Amino acid sequence: MWLLVRVGLVAAPIGGVWYVRNVLLGHAWTNLPPAYWQDFAQRSGMQLDTIWIFVTLTGLIAFIQLKKQKQWRHLVLVSLGILAINVAILPTLLSIPKTGWTWQTSWDMINGFREANRRLYAYEGFLLLFGVGALGLGTWPLWRQIPSKLRVGFLLTWALGLPFFLVYFWSFSYHYRLMLTVLPIMLAAIAALLAYLLNLYATNTLRRIALVVIAVFLGLPAPIAASFHTWHNTLDARGVRTETDKYRYANPALMDVVAALERYAKQQERDHLRVLAPGENRLAFFFPTWHIDDETIPTDLEDLNGYDVFVYSVVDFLWRAYDFYPNQVQAWTKIVWEYPLPLTGKKWAMDGPLGLPLPRFLRPIMTPIDDGTFHYELFAIDIHAPYTYIQPTYSEDERIYSTQMQLLGYDVPTMLFEGESYVLKFYWRGGAVPPQGDYSIFVHLTPPDDPTHILAQADGGFMVGAYPTRFLTPNMIFQDRRILHIPNNIDIQKAVLRVGVYDPATGIRFPILLEDGQSADSLTLQPILTLEDK
Questions:
Q1: Domain ranges, ordered by start, for the chain
Q2: How many Å apart are CA 15 and CA 17, to the nearest integer?
Q3: Is the pLDDT of residue 406 over 60?
Q4: Buried b / exposed e across 333-358, counting CB within 10 Å, b at 16+?
Q5: pLDDT over 80 (residue 335)
Q6: How far is 248 from 192, CA to CA, in rounded Å?
Q7: pLDDT of res. 233
Q8: Torsions phi, psi of 98, nearest 5?
Q9: I want to staple 39 with a disulfide (CB 3.0 to 4.6 A). Which of 33, 144, 250, 403 is the partner?
Q10: Could you tell me which residues are beta bridge partners of residue 520?
Q11: 312, 346 in Cβ contact below 8 A?
Q12: Rounded to 10 degrees, what is the CA torsion of 79, 85, 89, 91?
């Protein structure tokens, strides 16, 4: 017992330093989810794989020993315990993903990176508790046969492991801060193992020395490998000296992100920002007083409401892993680079009607960063930008296509030269009923009196298909840019643009309501265009 107290006094400051740090900074001592059973962080059999192997092997060894000792009642308890634990864990541990079982599935399961198809059901949780209890009662005779000192070592190790398992199953798995609770476990386990082996095998000085040499030889590669960067730079006079330098040496892209966030906060005259960085859990260490959300996986605009900056990196992997691909936010991260970027010192690009600034939902605050290992993009968020109306150069008084899409207007040139390409800008607004599919828009250059004679065209989905029309939610205003190339040798001088919406799967055009109350399958735009030779 005194051994337990002494080791506990040594280990407690190590395990508790993170919580003390939180309290000193005015934070809650820890951040546990308010609803454990509703949180997807609740573990399934997939996250119990290592423990399942350990418990199953322990149960099988106990089964063999109890059978030898003819402890039949305890043998039944151990059998029930193993059965209950396997029934509780295996359905989610061995769940087959939608894409089928591949070598990558097996590798992910071994590494603990594969998410199960669901959480544990309540009855599986009860079976798990029952199995652990039955296994504990069944192995009690064997436990009593273990030497007292070794029992103390086991109890000490598992007692020190309690903080780790509590936090692990409570939503913070694989987080760096867990090392502060894992460290005492490792120290206690290594100390108990060495003490046991020394007493068991080292019956003389020579064997004791040999055992120490072997232990050092086996253990030496681990700290060298784990501390390579620090060790290397300590010997190198040109090496890094600060934690920031160490991170920049090992992960320059991450430190560029940190620097960009610091610059942006300074530009905005803010002492802290609300940052959404799905899957990137290291930013909180550089900005301990900021709100850094690394857990939320955004899929639509409203998911980014309340945040100042969106960090695009690991989230692409998460979208695909959870079958959230494609989605509204993902589409925006792609098309944002298709629009003109603002000039230095300007917030928005002068890309709106008549050269006015046009707000965007996502605005890059740095160029993409890629160091060969990590890729980052940073976007300032303006949740109101997609709903901001700017009068187009030519207004169409909200032409409605099948109640799903409204054409508010457009910016088009009135004089075209053969052999040149022109940017056409169309402003669409989502109708009361969002588009039910991914539709295409056709833009045809034709003679004024012959809609079937197509001189040039620019067809396809929004932004060359990068933004599916089904993401055009009610009242969202979307600027669709198209490139129209004018061929050579056109034999007419006047032309018009005709615009319509159609389903690419069937080719059926959507009707549009005209001013006279009639309907048509396309809209003839207002200006008569003049075609000129070069």
A1: 2-225, 249-383, 394-532
A2: 6
A3: yes
A4: bebbeebeebeeeeebbebbbeeeeb
A5: yes
A6: 38
A7: 54
A8: -60, -30
A9: 33
A10: 512
A11: no
A12: 50
Q: Which two structure tokens, joined as six digits, stand for 305?
A: 């409401």
* Tokens, residue 328: 């509204």
Give the long-range contacts of residues 313-321, CB within 8 A, separation 24 or more.
313/277, 313/279, 313/280, 313/374, 313/375, 313/376, 313/377, 314/278, 314/279, 314/280, 315/278, 315/279, 317/279, 318/278, 318/279, 321/115
pLDDT band at 35 (very low <50, low <70, confident <90, very high): very low
Buried b (16+ CB within 10 A) or exposed e, 377-395: bbbbbbeebbbeebebbbe
What's the angle, vertex CA 60, arms to CA 57 and CA 65, rounded to 5? 125
- List pLDDT tens digits, range 82-119: 999 999 988 888 777 666 777 777 766 665 556 666 77
| Least confident residue range of 324-333, 354-363, 454-463 | 354-363
What is the predicted pLDDT for the residue at 180? 55
For residue 225, count other CB atoms closer than 10 A to its CB.
9
Question: What tokens does 271 get?
Answer: 């002492």
Question: What's the CA gap between 131 and 51, in Å, rounded?
Answer: 13
Question: Tokens 């029934």 belong to which residue?
Answer: 87
**What is the model's pLDDT at position 420?**
93
**Each residue's pLDDT tens digit, 432-459:** 888 888 999 999 999 999 999 999 999 9
Six-digit token pair at 231? 């060790």
Q: What share of the chain is helix, strand, coil (3-state, %, to 5)?
A: 45, 15, 40
Residue given tokens 């955004």 in the structure block: 298
Report whether 299 contacts 325 (CB < 8 A).
no
Angle at 524 between CA 521 and CA 530, to 5 degrees: 145
* Three-state secondary structure string covering 100-142: CCCHHHHHHHHHCCCCCCCCCCHHHHHHHHHHHHHHHHHCHHH
Q: Domain 394-532 falls in which CATH fold?
A: Immunoglobulin-like (2.60.40)
Q: Hey, what amino acid is at 264?
A: Y
3-state secondary structure of 423: strand
| DSSP assignment string, 250-295 | H-HHHHHHHHHHHHHHHHTT-S--EEE-TT-TTHHHH-TTSEEE-S
The answer to whether 467 touches 335, Cβ cutoff 8 Å, is yes
| Cα dihedral: 78, 83, 84, 88 (round 10) | 140
Output the six-digit token pair for 218.
Answer: 């086996």
